[in-house]
Structures are given as C-alpha cells and as structure tokens.
Amino acid sequence: MKKWYNEPFFDSTSWIFENLMYLNLSSEEALTVLMINYLNTKQIRITNDVLCKRTGLSYEKLDQVIALLCAKNYLDIKATSKTVSFQLNGLFESEMAKREAAGSGSLYDAFESEFGRPLTQSEMQMLSEWVHNIDSKLILYALKEASIYRSLNMNYIARVLKDWMDKGISSEMVEEGRHLGRRKNS
C-alpha cells in the first residue's frame, strides 16, 4: 500500500512548511530538508556540490547538517552503483508526522471509507485544498455531519464547511456541541 506522503495529491513542500515548528529543525537543517525535497520533486540529481551551491552552506556545515538529519532518522541516503538518493521518508514517518497523518493523510481514508469508494481526482483535489485551508478536525466533523444527514457528497460538505466558517464555528465548538442551532439546513 502506498504511504500517505507518496500519494499524488500530497504536497510535501507545503507539509514541511506547515509543520516546521514541530520538526525540531535548526535553520540549516530546515533549509537542507527543503532543498532536498525540492531537488527530489524536480528529479534533479543531488550531490554535496549541488547542496552546497544551492543552500550556501560550506561542505563542513553541510556534513554536520546531513549527519544530524540522519541521526534524527529524517534523512536516509541510499547508494547504488549508479546513483545516490536522498530520501526524506523518515521525516514524514516521524512520530510528529504520524500524528499529522491522523489529521490529514487519514482524512482521505476517512472520506473513502465513509463514501464506500475511492475518491475521484476532483474530490481528492477539493479535499487537498480544504486540508491546506481548514482545520482537519473541522473537515472530519463536516464529513460526519454529511453522513448523519445521508448527504455524502463533496458539495454538501463544502456547504457545511462554508457555513461553519462564515459563522466562526471551530472544531472545538463542534466538539462541545456549541455549533448546534447555529447551522441551517443546506
């Protein structure tokens, strides 16, 4: 099964930026992670020379940063007879990332489970946009509301989310039941 961070709808760069505060990275480590992610995304061959040139770090500093990223299990360097690859899978598989996956990556699973089918490309795109702009818990609560009202479609869920956002309803308010009575039928 494909890992949530390898799905086509997953934006690794946005995820890294959104979670920088939780990843416990120095500025040099963050810069290096972002550069490795960028180079991997663009399928540009990564070497120490390329990383030094693009990050502005010295070879010594880059070696220290790479050693720290490997020690944190965020970075894995694999060498074959033909290539060397820099893989950030550990970054996305860290404990923090697993908690994040419970809030976003598994949202896709929750939607597919609730809908009883795989999401279409347009549904995945819509959900991806929501994940970047709306609290994941609130999205999940809107899905649950759609399920309760037997209106399992993205347009209904979008109306619920818009209504809640227009009224300033947060996931905490939904958890406490304070959104009840503030929601009109859509």
| SSE-based structural type | mainly alpha
CATH class of the largest domain: Mainly Alpha
* Domains, number: 2
Gross morphology: elongated
Cα-atom radius of gyration: 20 Å
Compute the average pLDDT.
Answer: 84
Q: Encode the helix/strand succession as letters.
A: HHHHEEHHHHHHH
Sheet with most strands: strand arrangement? 1-2
Q: Extract low-pLDDT stretches.
A: 182-186
β-strand number: 2
CATH architecture of the largest domain: Orthogonal Bundle
| Main pleated sheet | 2 strands, antiparallel
Notes on the structure:
The protein is mainly α. It has two domains: 4-94, Orthogonal Bundle (Arc Repressor Mutant, subunit A), CATH 1.10.10; 104-175, Arc Repressor Mutant, subunit A, CATH 1.10.10.630. The chain contains eleven helices and two strands. The chain has helices spanning 12-19, 27-41, 48-55, 59-71, 89-93, 95-103, 105-115, 121-133, 136-148, 154-166, 171-175; strands spanning 76-79, 84-87. It has a two-stranded antiparallel ribbon with strand order 1-2. β1 (76-79) and β2 form a beta hairpin. α2 (27-41) packs across α4, α7 (105-115) runs parallel beside α9 (136-148) and α9 crosses α10. The longest helix is centred in the first third of the chain and has 15 residues, at 27-41. The protein is elongated and about 60 Å long. The two termini are 37 Å apart.
Descriptive keywords:
two-stranded antiparallel ribbon, disordered C terminus, 61% helix, 11 helices, Arc Repressor Mutant, subunit A, 186 residues, mainly alpha, 2 domains, single chain
